Amino acid sequence: MTDMTVLQSRSEDASTGEDFSASVMSIEIGPAHPAMHGIVRLTTQLDGELIVGMEAEIGYLHRGFEKESENSKWIQVIPYTDRLNYVSPLLCNIGYSMAVEKLYGIEAPRRAEFTRVIMGEISRITDHLTCLGAVAMEIGAFTFFLWFIKAREYLWELVEEMTGARLTTNWTRFGGNAFDLPDGFLSDLSDRLAKLKEVLTECDKLLTRNKIFIDRVKDVGAISKEDALSYGFTGPMLRACGIPFDVRRADSYSVYDELDFEIPVGSTGDCFDRFLVRMEEIRQSISIIEQAADKMPEGPFMTDERMMHYPDKKDVYGNIEGLIDHFKLVMEGHQPPAGEIYMPTEGGNGEIGFYLVSDGSGDPVRVRMRPPCFNFVAAMPAMTVGHYVADIVPIFGSVNMIGGELDR
Amino acid sequence: MEILLEIIMIPAVLAIIKIVVIVLLFALPLGTFLTLMERKWSAMIQDRVGPNRANIGNFTGHGIMHLAADGLKSIFKEDTMPKGADGFLYLIAPFFGLIAAVATFAIIPIAGPIGDFTFQVTDIEPGLLFIFAITSLSVYGAVLAGTSSNSKFALLGGTRASAQMISYEVFMGLALMGIFMVYGTTRVSGIVDGQNEYWFGSLIPMWGVFTQPLGFVLFFTALVAETKRAPFDAPEGESEIVAGYFLEYSGMRWSAFMLAEYVALVGVASLITTLFFGGYHVPWLHLWESAPQWLVTILQIIKFSVFTLFFCWFQIQLRWTVPKFRFDQTMALGWKKLLPLSLINLFVTAFVILAFA
Q1: A73-383, what's its fold?
Q2: Between B46, B240, B322, which is nearest A393 by CB?
């Protein structure tokens, strides 16, 4: 027996006759795997520890948001948007309501807009904190995960104070918000932001300058500007590549043009840049919240246009217009004028866009949401191939895939 | 009574008694207790409460009941074996690590000898070479578990573990070579007694950490990597390869892996104490000449335990503070940085000894 035949016979398992001589091993990461936070499957080809191929399979969390919306009234879609992005539900609430307002061609009162900015930025911070915490946890710094979650808890208590719920917020309405600022909210807000800043400083000291941490995330999962654009990246992932694109500035909506903030950009688009961009965005969001709280105008928090909200009870019982409005809103729901619009807003992960089609009746014809994560997951093979299997973890963590929003 | 005493003083019987006392009353309970200590301490670091629910009646004992609860749970869990696993190897793999971890304690003295009686299972001539032999045995636990499980994740973990442990063994030996040169022996009692000397009259004890500061850092790093604890826990890699080589285990066999890790943690701490912090010798105790023997022995045990606990705590603190290395970074650190450093350490030590001694 020559050496070659020995090798040949060893490479074949005698009992099964399977051929093990191929050096590429296929391994299923997910759908149930600790690093796949939502549910997604990455079929990975490994050469030793090196990733040579990957295929991302999505759809495990599909709940039919879009189809369900077509069978609902316009206003009934708002609770569904809570469940899209379950770490920053308010941003989806706001995005959808602003899209419907655009369809109507109306604007919410200024007080409502400022409140939306505050709540939206709080949600953006919770989104970023969750992502950063997950990245830190998955490369072994479990302590930071809990510190970030602790900080997130301060903010979710504020969300609870405002909306009555932590996750199922259902807070915005067409032309305003369901509730005004509760008593003492602004002073609570500044307390919580101070605590949040402490946590950020602490984590900055211990994590951002940690050699092991930097080694794990630097030059990992880098993607070039051109590739990022061709994949359709938005949000922090795109900004980490060095393109200062932010819907809040590029297509200024709400009252963001009155507020002063910077758009942090990275240079290489690797996991470390994404981490730093998100860290800086948290700081910018804090400053936006502080400015918005200072400028908070007095006035109504709901538009006084007819047919946007239930009329006051005294109008319902006191005059015919009120009674008819009430009757039509209950029976037929909101009836935006016929037409189609696309309304982009800046979500936690990137551009959340709602494409709405109305035929003038009370039922939406089409409610389509543009999920930011979809493009990131599509780019997972491009970002991971050539790296080690352990790098899937920080790359996938920094993508911040949210299953609810991805699969809808 | 006298017959009993005579039987006890037979070397073989005595050795068995010592094994029982040191292993069953010191190493295993401390290892078990460390699982709780780790959970409590990490809870403190992370602003949590930690385990506090398991109870008998209303007694929770600050979470100590969780030890009993976890043990019972492991015993009653089904001992599963994956389809296609290599039965015999799969079943014995968990015990390699545990046996190796426990065997470390055979040569560690926890107090000074009283007459012929030593507080050490055996004081063999090769001494530390025995440790190297035993720790290399523990590689088999991880490798066999990884390869016999018939799971790709476990296989990745097993290969990582074998590569890492074998590499770190190399300069673990080299890092300790300085200690052998300074104290002129591999026998543990010789090294411990060598550390009872003093510089500048009675000012500074000649502890290993002072004679071999670089050797201490290198040896400690190597030992932490050898026990596969954070930041060197790539073989477990709980985020990417789920649990690595012991992914497929359940019940008591899984507990054997965990227990082995914690017993090894105690082993590391006691080795560090013995080799670099004067072992059981209480510094400056020789100045008190009239100290009664029994008090000295008690003080020695206390000193040894305190230092051991300190280094256990230090490893726990380390785990919850730093992120973990990627596997290739672990290897690069070992071969490219620590190995040259330990060689330099060896040459400098040799030069100093040659020039000044």
Answers
A1: Cytochrome-c3 Hydrogenase; chain B (1.10.645)
A2: B240
